[in-house]
Write a structure and sequence with these properties.
The structure holds 2 protein chains of 2 kinds. By secondary structure, chain A is of the alpha+beta class. Chain A has a single domain, classed as 60s Ribosomal Protein L30, Chain: A (2-Layer Sandwich), CATH 3.30.1330.200. In chain A, about 20% of the residues lie in helices and about 35% in strands. Chain A is built from 2 helices and 10 strands. In chain A, helix 1 (about 65-75) runs parallel beside helix 2 (about 105-120). The longest helix of chain A is centred in the last third of the chain and has 16 residues, at about 105-120. By secondary structure, chain B is of the alpha+beta class. Helices cover about 45% and strands about 30% of the residues of chain B. In chain B, strands 1, 2, 3, 4, 5, 6 and 7 form a 7-stranded antiparallel sheet that branches. In chain B, helix 1 crosses helix 4 (about 105-130), helix 1 (about 10-35) crosses helix 6 (about 190-200) and helix 4 (about 105-130) packs across helix 6 (about 190-200). The interface of A and B includes residues 25 and 26 of A.
Chain lengths: ~160, ~200
């Protein structure tokens, strides 16, 4: 069964028997859109909450708002609209447990908030999430079933 | 089309010039801490895109230890030092005299101290050259996936660029045998401080 790796600031589409995998999420968030009817899906690995300029739209996978918009467009080309999609998200950790004071402080929480907001605005149901905390995550999405597996370095595994 | 490079070729050369001075001084400071002669050398300054980051650290989900050193004063920012998995055991052996035997807290504090020396030296050099007051704050330490640790700095730099500037150092013994590779990643404020210091160095201040 083939694995497609979704890199930082990327988003990719897949269909069975493919799996989408993204590694080492800290404050970044993995967003999965899955269609139960068409049995296809896509995953993004976003870094930041919202795009600031037109230039940012050239790398849509980097921001929660532009990534979800682009993923939805990708689905609409295949005749799948937002009501037919469900979403699952993972990541958004605070790796330095609130002690980091730079511009990027609480960026994980802001990424999660922005993701929920854009999903809500577009009308996609968020049905599973493993977000926050202070640990890194690797996630794997199985297109056949819509299952999202979340793993940590400590060996913890969650199924969403 | 992606955003323009964070550093031009000339600017990268300027950062390398400063890194040479820092490597020399930090090597001496680390030798005093370890009570054995070591050097920091064979460094390079590499500006890489997101897709190249996994290879640099043996994968985004590979174990790494990160030491984040915030600094404040005339300039506020952060520098992250990442010790990839491949060198953690070796550095533990150098720092603690054994490999993998020490308690986790002791291991982590040894890495924090090493990171503190490196960034302390870096900030002293940058402060002196740029004539700005810059003081480091206590280091923040984390042990987790390399990609997860990098996210904090990448989120800062990501507002400005689709690339990350990395300074790759190597700790060697007195005969130049490579022991441990580690990577320093300044945020945008750190890069600006580097460039200001380099500019003044080249102007002969």
């Amino acid at each position: 069964m083939s694995h497609i790796i979704v890199g930082i600031a990327e988003f990719k589409f897949a269909e069975p028997p493919q799996k989408l995998v993204t590694y080492g999420l800290g404050s970044c968030v993995a967003i999965v859109l899955h269609s139960k009817d068409a049995i296809v899906g896509s995953m993004a690995h976003i870094m930041l909450p919202v795009a600031f300029s037109d230039e940012d739209n050239k790398t849509p996978g980097k921001f929660a708002d532009t990534a979800v918009t682009a993923m939805v467009q990708q689905m609409e080309i295949r005749g799948i609209g937002p009501p037919q999609l469900i979403a699952k998200i993972a990541g958004g950790a605070d790796m330095f447990a609130g002690k980091f004071k730079g511009t990027g402080r609480r960026i994980g929480a802001r990424n999660v908030l922005a993701t929920r907001k854009i999903l809500d605005n577009i009308g996609i149901r968020l049905v599973g999430q493993d977000v926050g905390g202070t640990v890194g995550r690797t996630v794997e999405y199985v297109t056949d079933t819509g299952l999202l597996m979340v793993r940590t370095l400590r060996g913890e595994v969650k199924e969403l | 089309m992606e955003k323009p490079p964070l550093l031009s070729r000339e600017q990268a050369a300027a950062v390398r010039e400063i890194a040479t001075i820092v490597a020399d001084q930090a090597g001496n400071a680390l030798s005093r801490l370890l009570k054995i002669p070591v050097r920091i050398s064979t460094f390079e300054v590499v500006t890489i895109g997101y897709s190249e980051i996994p290879d640099m650290f043996g994968g985004l989900d590979a174990l790494a230890i990160g030491v984040l050193v915030p600094f404040q004063g005339d300039v506020e920012g952060n520098a992250l030092i990442l010790f990839p998995e491949e060198g953690i055991g070796e550095l533990e052996g150098i720092l603690l005299g054994s490999s993998g035997q020490a308690e986790t807290d002791l291991r982590l504090s040894a890495f924090a101290e090493t990171g503190n020396i490196l960034t302390g030296t870096l900030l002293t050099v940058l402060s002196s050259l740029s004539e700005k007051i810059v003081v480091s704050l206590p280091p923040l330490l984390v042990q987790d996936m390399a990609g997860a640790i990098l996210d904090t700095i990448m989120a800062e730099v990501g507002l400005w660029s689709d690339e990350v500037t990395t300074l790759v150092f190597q700790l060697t013994d007195s005969e130049g045998t490579g022991l441990v590779r580690f990577v320093l990643i300044p945020d945008v404020a750190g890069i600006e401080l580097f460039l200001e210091a380099a500019g003044r160095l080249r102007a002969g201040h």
